[in-house]
Amino acid sequence: MNFTQLLPSPSDIQCALVSTLSTYLSRRKVSNTIIRPQEDFDIDPITGFLPPEALPRLPAEYQIWEEALSEAPEVLRLSNDMSDAALALREEGETWRMEIRSRPTLEVNLLKDNPRLLQRAHVVLTWLVQYYVHSLPSPHPPTPKRIPASLAVPLVNVSRMLGIAPILTFADTITWNWELIRPDQPATIDNMKLAHNFSGTDDERHFYQVQAAVELHGTQVLRIIDDFYRIPNLDDLTSVFKVVKDLTRLTAVIEEISELIQSMRSACDPHVFYWDIRPWEGGSDSKGPSHPGWIYEGVDPSAPELQYLSGPSGGQSVVMHALDLFLDIDHKLQTRRHPGPSVENKRADRGFMERMRRYMLGKHRAYLEQIENSPRSIRELAQHTAVLREPYNNAVKALKSLRTLHMRIACLYVINMSKTANPRSVCPVAVMMERQANTMEARGRDEKRDPIRGTGGTDLVTLLKAGRDATARAVLEK
Ligand code: HEM
Q1: Where heme b is bound, by residue (predicted)?
Q2: Taking a C-beta distance cutoff of 8 angstroms, is the pair 207, 274 a contact?
Q3: CB of 213 shorter than 6 A to ligand 1
Q4: Which residues on neighbouring strands pair with residue 193, listed in sequence order?
């Protein structure tokens, strides 16, 4: 028997394809979709969400901010750093903070027409706030940390103009935190060096650089997404095969991003991350709801922006959000999918990813809204087009594996480290006592079910598992 006779002919395939697609397209009432170009959203074709050039320094009127930031790493240490070197700096640190408190509250209108200068002002002011708050000795019992008006007022004003939260964000530590090594060469990861580094360690440099590499790699994701929305008609074979090819490429890009995340381990020591880097990044709610938060002096306490004062998180990476929205990952559990969410999934902070969007540049958030509101959905298309189902599922499975790997990294760097002692404690005996206290606290936490929190103050294990499970639920049945 000639087996080829049993196979559908190319024209049969085309007919079947066109018929399923037309059902889908007529239901969606779209044959093509008009989208705004990425330039409208401050997305560069080469560097994506990173600006194509390093941010310029602020003009002379704001030199006092730039100077305070240059001086900060020389004189400030974490308030719980009891090493001799840190104690020797205590007086200079207090002088630095006193000067910040006594500085005038500068107007920022001068910057309003220059987005790059506004971004630089956001970087400088947010880094100053973190230096100020986390070097300030903490009284017992803890009281709210007061951010002086000289920082708080201009920061809130600059943030309003950019449409971003008035606190250190992923943009301030990753997207905008670099300079070119060779200014005459293009912005590639090998030609970038960190502009600011709290701990002064190579570990911190690596921590930011890996995440910057993910964002740069993400430009390929953006191109694939853009191409999908720009295909004029999806009801012909050439277009469908283009989508197959792009989904296959997307799977490879997600796997490459996983490799980048995995490379964190090669040069960022978990102890250094947990004890020397992470404490600088905590936001107003990083210690949980029972701890007093921050007060922005001179700012109306009911200002809506002040609801968004969590520290920076990978959850603010625009690339990761774009991937989730494109593949239609349902973090909010709004759709009925199989298998249903576990009890633990339902307990997770379902609004986390949406809230994290407030920590992005307004224009980048608008780009995500464009994906979200597009009437064209790759998942629905794959549901109705057999040939797309496997490539779509492969991309989703790659994203699920990325989240499983990321969970392992978060456990290694946060959960495991929370059971160790702070190496900057007073003396070896105190270190031993602190280690014992931490172990007991961890046990007590297990008993009371008080969770380890992420920089955003959320129960991180439940959150990360829920994200992974939500991703797995996007897989389509064959
Ligand atoms: C040492 C490396 C890392 C650690 C310790 C870490 C830790 C965490 C923690 C604790 C969270 C919980 C949410 C919160 O911030 O409060 C989180 C969320 C997240 N992180 Fe990371 N992270 C690391 C690297 C990365 C990298 C390189 C990326 C890639 C951009 C990334 C992307 C994300 C995303 C997208 C979330 C939101 C939750 C989710 O989508 O599953 N992280 N991370």
Answers
A1: 406
A2: no
A3: no
A4: 179
Structural domains for the chain: 33-53+165-472 (1.20.58.480)
* Burial label, 183 (beta-carbon count in 10 A; 0-12, 13-18, 19+): exposed
Q: Could you give the residue ranges of the DSSP H alpha helices within 357-456?
A: 362-373, 378-384, 386-410, 428-448
Interval between CA 240 and ligand 1 midpoint (Å): 34
What proportions of the chain, in percent to the nearest 5, are helix, strand and coil?
60, 5, 35
User: Where is 192: in which H helix or E strand?
Assistant: strand 192-194
Per-residue confidence (pLDDT) for residue 379, from 0 to 100: 98
Q: Report the amino acid identity of residue 81.
A: D
Name the token pair of 96: 């630095």
pLDDT given at position 96: 98
Binding residues for heme b, as ranges, are 406
| Residue 178, SS3 per DSSP | strand
Q: Quick one: pLDDT at residue 35?
A: 87
Atom 15 of ligand 1, residue of closest alpha carbon: 313
Which pLDDT score, from 0 to 100, does residue 2 have?
43
- Indicate if ligand 1 lies below 6 Å from the C-beta of 211: yes
Decide: 317 in ligand 1 pocket, CB within 6 A. Answer: yes
Q: From atom 28 of ligand 1, which residue's Cα is the shortest distance away?
A: 314
pLDDT mean by block of 10 residues, the chain; 478 residues: 43 52 49 79 97 97 98 97 95 98 97 98 98 94 95 98 98 98 95 97 98 97 96 92 98 98 98 97 90 96 97 97 98 93 94 97 98 96 96 98 98 94 69 57 52 69 96 95
Nearest to 217 by CA among 461, 50, 410, 359: 50
- The best mutation among 174, 353, 406, 473 to test binding of ligand 1, ranked by most ligand atoms within 8 Å of the C-beta, falls on 406
